[in-house]
Specification:
heterodimer, A: alpha+beta, eight-stranded antiparallel β-sheet, 26% helix, flat, B: alpha+beta, three-stranded antiparallel β-sheet, two-stranded antiparallel sheet, 10% strand
């Protein structure tokens, strides 16, 4: 009986790319594919808005904001047989299994109790084999602090309030191709980006940034790309 | 000089961080900038992708297959400011300009088409 409802949208979803369906129903996937297959997924995702209106089947916000732009950018730098691996978990930090143990913090009236816990949400991991022979790893992890405060006023009225504070760690590692020339960039990176370089047969450049996630989500892809940029500046060709 | 040597390669810049030239045989010159363009990159009016994006105001949606190419120039400009490193963006421009100068340091002969060639020697440049 229930299948009567939303049947056109349900049929449209069944016609989408399997990973597109996974994003709709599981809000994530973990898969390695060549660039052509990722482009097929992006083409399928582009059809979503036109065919699916139901709120329950909406794509997670980070699909058009982060996932699609990063797929487009990385596949530009890849050859046809290379592999792009993406593990995306867009369920958010409140999903089961992400929260750590609760601890009680000291409280004074009118606060009756304060419970604090952290949730660690590694929501995006990417590995791309680039056409210059280097391998790029991107990892974005949100660490959310929750504080649940219980207040009781003088008339016995109870209030609960939960506050969150999110710190985001963006780590980009590039394993440069064997024998490629590596040179320190002329200017240091912005202060919020930390760089580590490990010399060897394949030089490894790692750029990390820890930022407060209190800016609009629309700036997320730009922020990830800015951290990634640092790893590419070390092999820039000079005239 | 044989026939193969006289084929003009497509000069469209490819890649985002790892830049390269398309290198497929060009079929026409862009009517706007004169850059040699292959059949794969020529737009409906024969325009190269950069000129087509500029005239269209750039692809707005990241779902558009051309989006990364249009966003590249904007991003390089922004990241150059964020890094306070003018050479980061100017080297990209030099590269593009090198496409018009066959003997320049930033011009490349091999091209980067033919996916999976497995030869990483000289047909690309790190950004």
């Amino acid at each position: 009986m229930l299948a009567v409802f939303w049947r056109k949208q349900r049929a449209a979803i069944e016609g989408f790319h399997p990973l597109h369906q996974a994003l709709v129903h599981q809000q994530g996937f973990s898969v390695s594919l060549p660039p052509a297959d990722w482009r097929a997924l992006v083409a399928s995702l582009a059809q979503h808005q036109a065919h699916v209106k139901r709120r329950k089947w909406r794509l997670p916000e980070r699909v058009p904001l982060v996932l699609v732009p990063l797929i487009q950018v990385l596949t530009e730098d890849m050859r046809g047989k290379a592999t792009l691996s993406i593990a995306a978990d867009l369920r958010g930090p409140d999903a089961p299994g992400k929260a750590g143990p609760q601890q009680r913090l000291p409280a004074r009236r009118p606060v009756r109790s304060v419970a604090q816990w952290y949730a660690v949400d590694p929501w995006l991991r990417i590995r791309a084999e680039l056409r210059d022979g280097s391998v790029l790893d991107v990892e974005v992890v949100d660490r959310v602090r929750y504080r649940k405060i219980h207040k009781v006023n003088s008339r016995g009225k109870h209030k609960w309030k939960t506050k969150t504070k999110t710190v985001r760690r963006i780590a980009v590692t590039r394993r440069i191709a064997k024998g490629a020339a590596v040179a320190r960039p002329s200017a240091p990176p912005p202060r919020w980006i930390r760089t580590r370089v490990k010399s060897g047969e394949r030089t490894v450049v790692q750029a990390t940034a820890k930022v407060l996630a209190n800016y609009p989500e629309a700036q997320l892809p730009q922020q990830i790309l800015q951290v990634s940029t640092e790893t590419f500046r070390w092999t820039r060709r000079t005239a | 000089m044989d026939e193969e040597d006289r084929v003009t390669p497509c000069d469209v810049t490819t890649g985002f961080f790892v830049l390269g030239h398309c290198g497929r045989p060009a079929v026409a010159g862009c009517p706007s900038c004169g850059k040699p363009v292959c059949a794969h990159h020529a737009g409906p009016d024969g325009l190269c992708p950069e000129c087509a994006d500029r005239l269209a105001g750039g692809p707005a949606s990241p779902y558009d297959p051309r989006w990364a190419r249009g966003y590249r120039r904007t991003y390089y400009s922004e990241s150059s400011r964020a890094y306070n490193d003018t050479t980061w963006y100017s080297s990209f421009d030099d590269y593009d300009r090198g496409g018009f100068d066959a003997g320049g340091d930033y011009s490349f002969g091999g091209g980067d088409f033919g996916d999976g060639d497995g030869d990483f020697g000289g047909d690309f440049v790190d950004s």
